[in-house]
Amino acid sequence: MKKLLLTLSLVFLSIMFSGAWSGQSAKEERQKKFQEKKKRLQENQETLKMLYKYAPESRNMLLRSYAYATFTNFNIYLFLVSAEGGHGVAHNNRTGKNTYMNMASGGIGLGLGVKNFRGVFLFKDKRVFDNFINKGWEANIQADAAAKFGNDGGAVNAAMTIAPGVRLYKITENGLALDATIQGTKYWKDEDLN
Predict the structure, then answer these.
(1) Which alpha helices (H) appear in the chain, and where do they start and end?
(2) What three-state secondary structure class fits 45?
(3) In this structure, is residue 27 part of a structural domain?
């Protein structure tokens, strides 16, 4: 009888402790996800501030869009190989819902160093936006700016049409980029955060 009680006690204690440990782990995991979402939302706001600074008319374009997405990207160039990775937030202007996204690409080209840029996508309608977040999206095109930008503005053309119903602003440390090259870049929903 004592052995049975001891065995049952040990089983009970092991269940209690394993539950406590897994609860703590789950709590830590929720906290980590919360912090990552918070970081991405802060980067989203920083990106929008940068965009409005360099292209003030973009605020109205963004508000009129069905949805938008902001991405923070980091490029690494090492001789003939380049790699890019980043993350972002897709925001539905109609519902207010955020979807957390990832992106990555790789390529071949000359260069050395690290460069970062931010991208803001504008989506014309629900179909285009839903396709972007639910099916992922792979950009196999390259758009080049038709106009150069001066100190006095003229950045309306800075939003490049990169696919039917999708426009892109690309921002670097120096302001709006003169190209919207995103060839070979894949975007997909972050399953851990959604």
Answers:
(1) 2-54, 58-64, 126-135
(2) helix
(3) no
> Hey, is 30 helix, strand or coil?
helix
* Cα–Cα distance measured from residue 52 to residue 175, given in angstroms and rounded to the nearest whole number: 11
Strand partners of residue 118: 72, 171
CA nearest to 166, candidates 147, 143, 189, 146: 143
Which of 116, 29, 110 is closest to 72 using CA atoms? 116
Q: Is residue 1 part of a domain?
A: no
Tokens of residue 180, six digits: 């919207």
Q: Output the CA–CA distances (angstroms, integers) from residue 135 to 31, 84, 87, 127, 164, in the order listed.
A: 28, 20, 16, 11, 16
Distance of CA 162 to the CA centre of its chain: 17
123-128-130 Cα angle (round to 5): 105
8 A C-beta contact, residue 162 and residue 104: no
Cα gap 47→86, rounded to integer Å: 13
Confirm whether 72 is domain-assigned.
yes
Read off the pLDDT of residues 132-186 as tens digits, 9 standing for 90 and up. 999 887 765 444 333 333 343 444 456 778 888 999 998 887 788 766 566 678 8
Question: Phi, psi at residue 36, to the nearest 5°?
Answer: -65, -40
Give the structural domain span for 142.
52-189
- Is residue 57 in a domain? yes
pLDDT digits (tens, 9 = 90+) for 174-185: 788 766 566 678
